[in-house]
Design brief:
The complex is a heterodimer. Chain A is mostly beta strands. Chain B is globular. By secondary structure, chain B is an all-beta fold. In chain B, strands 2, 5, 6, 10, 11 and 12 form a six-stranded mixed sheet that branches. In chain B, strand 8 and strand 9 form a beta hairpin. Classes of the chains: A mainly beta, B mainly beta. Chains A and B meet through strand 5 of A and strand 6 and strand 11 of B.
Chain lengths: 115, 117
């Protein structure tokens, strides 16, 4: 158990809908990362927050947004959902800001199915 | 730009035999390289990382990897496979451009390791 929790574990929704994925980092970790894992795109970095502020952006669509709250939990919002958004969404956390210097601990993921 | 190529999508070995998972990378700067493992229905776990120190890196569970700049490779090995090693393995590159350690992680497509009794 990495100490990172993600809810819900599974989510099934229809095209055009909006969903929110939640992540609680390990105790003491200030960075939260979001990743998308799909069969055709593989594992892709989406976005990173550090202590409430956005630090880095990857291949995140404009329909997606995220935030990190004062208690350090993070939410990933996905809107106007399309079939291609079906994927496993991982959250990871680390104690520091730099992805290279600090080990990232991954949560178990949220499996999103868009029908 | 940085990229990573895992040369085998599937590798199958017998228990007790050596494991070799191949990874080549491409980057404009000195890279940091990682191997992560993902067991079924689990999140990713860091096996080992290379960040410009010793070129032979030892990780958890008996795995090790060697950074070879001339070959732009970072292959993962283990002398003797165990049934519990069956999982998907990801090679990851991050470029520390400017020495800030802020490089983003770029993942390979993954190699599924099957271990036969």
């Amino acid at each position: 158990d990495s100490g990172v929790t993600q809810t819900p574990k599974h989510l099934i929704t229809a095209t055009g809908q909006r969903v929110t994925l939640r992540c609680s980092p390990r105790s003491g970790d200030l960075s939260v990362y979001w990743y998308q894992q799909s069969l055709d795109q593989g594992l892709q970095f989406l976005i990173q927050y550090y202590n409430g502020e956005e630090r880095a952006k990857g291949n995140i669509l404009e329909r997606f947004s995220a935030q990190q709250f004062p208690d350090l939990h993070s939410e990933l919002n996905l809107s106007s959902l399309e079939l291609g958004d079906s994927a496993l969404y991982f959250c990871a956390s680390s104690v520091g800001m730099a992805p290279v210097a600090y080990e990232q601990y991954f949560g178990p993921g949220t499996r999103l199915t868009v029908t | 730009a940085q990229s990573v190529t895992q040369l085998d999508s599937h590798v199958s070995v017998s228990e007790g035999t050596p494991v070799l998972l191949r990874c080549n990378y491409s980057s404009s700067y000195s890279p940091s390289l990682f191997w992560y493992v993902q067991h079924p229905n689990k999140g990713l776990q860091l096996l080992l990382k290379y960040t410009s120190a010793a070129t032979l890196v030892k990780g958890i569970n008996g795995f090790e990897a060697e950074f070879k700049k001339s070959e732009t490779s970072f292959h993962l090995t283990k002398p003797s496979a165990h049934m519990s090693d069956a999982a998907e393995y990801f090679c990851v590159v991050s470029v520390d451009a400017g020495g800030t350690s802020y490089g983003k992680l770029t993942f390979g497509q993954g190699t599924i390791l099957t271990v036969h009794p």
